[in-house]
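Good morning,

Attaching, inline, the backbone tokens for the sequence recovery test we're adding to the shared suite. The designed sequence is right after.
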């Protein structure tokens, strides 16, 4: 895989408190990273400021806002997300097939109206912070977590969404259930040399891409590294099988 192909697959999670730190990450990582992920923390703190900064640098952004509301509200929110130029955004699949279809409708309305690229819409199945124990006992859903994840991924496909956000460990089962073209964006990625932090079910960048991940999310492996350039260059080498 060449460097351009690797760059397209890499998403960097801008999970930082400070807008200047986020901007600095965008500056130094733009040559290596295809898409910057703006999550709720940064978005609620700085709104469009960070998005506009990423756009000025000609980079893509993924608005990780996990929409979950009544279909009409989600449709209108999706319209605005796309109007602001996101190349990816996501919704909770548990909001229903009707809600996911509404998200797509709103997204397409905006891309047509403003002549923008159609965004990729991904579904969150079950948050990794929800255990099988919580699913079965607190939420009284008696399915096995893995079966529920597959069911929700199938619902997302039925609604016409492009793919899901899923752990690197689930790439194969999701592709088997929903098809190879169904996009999997995998967080919880840790290079061989980095610490796990609070992530439990991690895979390396090399393994995730070998298993078919379309995109991988890098977070603290880069943002907390003392030498961020050295860290990203090592990740490139690891994906290329050089280390
Ligand atoms: O620092 P780290 O690599 O753990 O960051 C992973 C990123 O992916 C964070 O932004 C986290 O919110 C996100 N994420 C995740 N697990 C999911 C969905 C998203 O870790 N299932």
């Amino acid at each position: 895989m060449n460097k351009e192909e690797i760059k397209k697959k890499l998403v960097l999670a801008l999970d930082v408190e400070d807008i200047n730190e986020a901007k600095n990450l965008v500056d130094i990582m733009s040559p290596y990273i295809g898409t910057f992920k703006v999550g709720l923390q940064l978005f609620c703190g700085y709104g469009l400021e960070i998005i506009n900064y990423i756009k000025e640098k000609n980079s893509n952004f993924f608005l990780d806002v996990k929409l979950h509301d009544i279909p009409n509200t989600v449709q209108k929110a999706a319209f605005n997300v796309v109007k602001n130029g996101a190349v990816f955004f996501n919704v909770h699949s548990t909001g229903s097939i009707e809600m996911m279809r509404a998200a797509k409708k709103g997204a397409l309305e905006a891309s047509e109206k403003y002549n923008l690229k159609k965004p990729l819409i991904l579904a969150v199945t079950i948050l990794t912070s929800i255990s099988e124990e919580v699913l079965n006992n607190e939420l009284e859903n008696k399915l096995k977590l893995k079966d529920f994840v597959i069911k929700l991924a199938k619902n997302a496909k039925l609604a016409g969404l492009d793919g899901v956000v899923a752990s690197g460990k689930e790439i194969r089962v999701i592709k088997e259930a929903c098809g190879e073209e169904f996009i999997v964006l995998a967080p919880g990625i840790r290079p061989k040399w980095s610490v796990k932090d609070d992530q439990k079910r991690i895979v390396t960048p090399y393994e995730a891409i070998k298993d078919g991940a379309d995109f991988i999310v890098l977070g603290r492996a880069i943002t907390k590294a003392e030498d961020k350039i050295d860290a990203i260059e090592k990740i490139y080498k690891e994906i290329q099988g050089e280390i």
